[in-house]
Sequence to fold (53 residues):
Amino acid sequence: MIRGLRRRHRLVWTVLFPILAVLLAVAVLLRPEPPLVDALPEAREVAADAVEP
Fold:
């Protein structure tokens, strides 16, 4: 590799690596949490007069 390009390549990766590492950490931390239950259980119907106020 050409010496000037090698130096530039090293400089670019020295700057990009910490930025990419921080972006990856932020992306992992901001993921939405998976639901605890896939679906709510079905409720059985209750007659209106059976409910006490």
About this structure: The mean pLDDT is 87. The CA atoms of residues 19 and 26 lie 11 Å apart. The radius of gyration is 28 Å.
